[in-house]
Amino acid sequence: MVKFGNTIEQESLPQWRGYYIDYKRLKKEIKEVVAKITAQEPNADIKESIDRFGNLLDHEINKSAIFYEDVLKRGVNSLASLKKRWPYISPTTLPLMYGELRQTTEEMADVIKFAELNAEGVRKILKKCEKKTKMAGFIYRGTTGEGLLRDFVRQRLRPDNTASRLDDLRLSPNIPRLWGELQAMFSSMREKEDQWLREGKITRHQVNELHGRTTEPIVDGEGHLIERKHTEELLLTFQRRAMRTARKAKFYSTLAGQAQIDYEAEPVGAADAFGLFLNHYNTFLYMANYYVVIPTANEYASALGMWATLSGLLLAMTPLSSLLSSVIYSLWSNRSFKQPLVFCTIILVLGNLLYALALPFGSPALLFLARLIVGLGGNRAVNRRYIADFVTIDQKTFQSAIFVAVGSLGMTVGPGSQTLLNMINFSVFGLPVNPLTAPGWIMAILWFIFFFMTWLAFTEPIRKYAKSRDNDLLEPLLAIEEGDETIEDGMPAASSSFRSLKDPTKSVMDPSGTVVCLWVYFVLKLVQEAFQTAAPLVTAHFFGWGDAAVGNMLAIIGLLVLPTNLAVGKLSQMIPDRVGQSISLFLLGLGSALTFELNSSSFTVVQYLIGGFTLFISAQVLEGVNMGLLSKVMPKVMSKGLFNSGFLSTEAGTFGRVVGNVMISIAGAVAGEASVNNLVAIPSVVLVGFSLVCSYVFWDRLVPVAERMKADDVMAPPSGLSQMDGWGDLRIHPIPQQRSIVRRDSAGSSLYRPHTRNSVASSYGNPQQGEKPSQESVE
Predict the structure, then answer these.
(1) Where does 281-458+505-701 sit in CATH, by number?
(2) For the region Disordered, what residue ranges are annotated (predicted)?
């Protein structure tokens, strides 16, 4: 058996010799590692020696990968140049353009072979190192729990690995399309040759010489013999090499799929305990700040000379401005988590101070402005993103449940504190501190304290994102619209079979699961917000309740949410998130239906409380489950940038709040307070029912990305090449005999060859001569 080191020597191109991996040097490094193991030196660090070997191998891989990319770029640029000059091809420029096309094809075939040799060399040398060290008595176990070969490759193929370019040595999935493009160019050029032969612009001898069918030796300017390859032979060589290389790369493709699954199943970074505490505490304060004004919003509006029903519009100011602030904080959190947390506290201090000052200034505009500013301080997109990015997948739903639970506690403490706030009535420097203004003063103080806690104690987490990758080098060259038969230059496009390659990551990037989760966010927030905002109006109209009674009701509901969410967090370890989502949706719809008023005489407090309790608790449980599920179904590639799970879920939920609040104001203005309850309950039931249908339709998409990748067999070669996808029926086979065309050149010699429009093999078949009719005929 020929040693692989000799194989590289024999099959490598002399002009590229310095860019292949230095196999002999790597073998020497293995000998040094084995020597240390054998010597059993007391201070010898075997793991360190193997790591040094790995670093050397990374250096060799990167050297080869950079060169491979450079050659591909050169070939792409050459083909792009040919396309631009194609409309101006003439008998005079034909030899030059054909020479460029052939040279590019040869170089592409050579670089495919280059990739194969280097990728195979990496596998061989790792296997050798693992075998030699094991024989010497050292058994390697890496971070994946596997041996050196599989662990090294799996770690280097991870999307977030920036030290190695091993993945760049694998074939582009567009290689079959490139082959089809080359085939189309050669075929088109041959058609022009036929045309010029008939017109007498070139001779048959020139064509034969051009395609290497002359028997006379051709020598270049330096006296070297030029080996002219037949065009058919050239393209078949390209195809054989690509298919062979793809088959050998199946090992890498399989581990690349496993590495992608590993990456998707891990968080972007690690959250520390105090960071999670501050994140949850921030949520608690903001939700308390948001809901503390609900019991007195209608009274505050009346005190400033507005309609009480405009309290819904007043409350809508906060989520409305949050739509804008979420964009800012989401982008900001790409660089830092601490900075937006500190900044938002300053904004919230200002907003709450303005809310307290609106009454002494008698300004409705100041009141609305204050709630707008409070919304600008809402950074729940950052809070949600912190959990999505830095909590392990098995803890996401549990931490999401805690996140919702502390938010529910804030929603409870806010309105529930109204009983205590009703006891406050004094002035400070002439400024009133009473049940209407106290929420603003107290929340401003609490946010001021949180500002110092965050500034002094929050630690910026370390993030590890997938490395940035340029688009496939071949994409610009092969960007042809589906169904096009020609490119813009007038040259025939490659066969459509080259444009429909299998993309095994398509199901991973399928947004349907993400869209369903975001829709559920919108619906649950709309239903919950509409119920809470309508509660003071409904209970006052039907039951004669005051602000304190409404606050107590919401407080009791919120207290029930806490143990429920903690229980759900524990159950998430045993029940799939999508099952929890469906159960919570059903209960949300049931709670909404129970609040419906058939007639005023039979509408009781008990019915309303049972419906409200069921609705509110199921909404809170659903938020935690849905938050965890969304962070799992979204690919990690979306964890960086504006449209991360934290931002999208916050925008969906905030928009739901806005719609819910506006719905109350419209219902009150159009139908009056007596009809508000039913005008909330009916659309709530309809929207929840539609959400259940969506969940059922996209059930198989509501699973974590890593699990979906396993189910969809993404561990199959990502390029699809090892399965020869994209080659269609263009594998190596005998030349098809479909029809024969006889033509004559200007010299009267006939050209007879099999003709198949899309077959290079037939288009470039050897000409056969014979006496044929003077006119072109089809036999």
Answers:
(1) 1.20.1250.20
(2) 743-779
